[in-house]
Structures are given as structure tokens and as C-alpha cells.
Amino acid sequence: MSTQVVSTNNRLLAALPRKDREQLLANCEQIDLVFAEVLYPAGDIIPYVYFPTGSFVSLMAPINSSENLEVGLIGNEGMFGISLMLGVDVAPFRAQVQGAGSALRITAASFLRELEHNHALQLQLQRYLYVSISQLAQKAVCTRFHLVKARLARWLLMAQDRAHSSTFHATHTLMAYLLGVRRVGITKAANALQKQKLIDYQRGDIAILDRVGLEAASCGCYRINNETYERILG
Length: 234
Fold this sequence. Notes:
This protein is α+β, with helices and mostly antiparallel strands. The chain has helices spanning 11-14, 18-25, 108-117, 119-145, 148-163, 172-179, 183-195, 211-217, 221-233; strands at residues 29-33, 38-40, 48-52, 56-62, 68-74, 94-99, 101-107, 167-169, 199-202, 205-208. Helix content is 45%, strand content 22%. A 4-stranded antiparallel sheet has the order 2-6-4-5. Strands 1-7-3 form a 3-stranded antiparallel sheet. The chain has a 3-stranded antiparallel sheet with strand order 8-10-9. α5 packs across α7 (183-195), α5 packs antiparallel against α8 and α6 (172-179) packs across α7 (183-195). It is globular.
């Protein structure tokens, strides 16, 4: 295990009592995640648990052998590998890096040992599991009932939150793939947001120009998910 000093810029870990946090961090290593890197595909054994600190990762449910639908976007507010808490070591979703940057990594075996003895960690992650289930349900509602423009605005807000920057990279093709819609639908929605001067878009480089306006253009799912997180974990 690496002996380097690791960052605690993860909201789940930062909320733990200092002793419990340091106990967990002693078993973590700090790594850099690379854009488009697949950490594990759906159905594989989970080798590591990740706590993003400066990166963000898409969780994608398989549709068929070549297509996936994004069901979660995890940044430094969360972690992935949560199914280990339920005694299941098989990944339910494909985990793929959408925002390069730092993360803390701990082996599945070390994580389970910590979970057994670290009561504060157990309570924190039980709450996070509840939030994750609530957000998955809200995602299903969003996909079924909300228009592409509102869903795209929501995704852009979520990406900005996790990138911790008003600029980031995402092509129309990628966003169409993640949202499960045709590319032409994303192009129309992005053009509409750009005409409203809410975003600027140039060859995959996105800049959020008016966050308040983008929140108004987004569906209510963005607000609901944030309120759920703050109520349970804030």
C-alpha cells in the first residue's frame, strides 16, 4: 500500500470523525483516473472501491452488447463499489471515467475489513446507499417523462458540480450515448441552450455561462436529488 499522504477531498470521508477517517485513509492509495478509462464493466467482480476526490465517473447500465445508459454520475460527493455493503461483489453497472482526476482507492478486501470494524463508516455509507437508491429511482422518472433539453441541462449541472469548474469536455455523441437519445436530439437541445446564452459549446468544450438560467431550464430532478443528498448526508 502506498505511504503517500492522501487527500480527504471527498465529502463522504470528510464527514467521518477524524479517527475513523484516518483509519480508513491508512488503507487507501491516491491515484489518477484517466478520461474514458473503464474501471470495471457490469458483471465483473469488484476489485476496488473508489472515492473520487478530483474526478467523476459514469455508472452505466447495459442495454445490449454495445450500448449503455448512464444511471449515475459520481464525483467527490460519493463513492462506487457500494454493492459490497450488501454482500455482493459483482458490479451492477459499468464504471467509466468521464472527468479525469484524482481518486482514493482501496481494495475490496480492505474495505470490507474496515466496514466490519468502523461503525461510523457503516452509518455514513448506509445513508449514502439510501441516497443512491433514491437517485436511481429519480433517474428512471427523468428518463421516462422529461424532455431532452431539460435532461441535458440537468446533466450539464451535474457535470459542472463534479468537475468543480464552469468548463469541461463532452461531445454531442458522448452526451447522446449517456442520456440514451439520438445525437440529433442532443444537438437541438444544446443549440437551444446556447441561443439562450446559458452555455457556450465549441468542438466538445462546454462552458457554463449562466448557471441560474441553466437550473431554470433543467427539470426538477436536479433540485430533488440535491435536496435528498443534503437532507440525508449534508
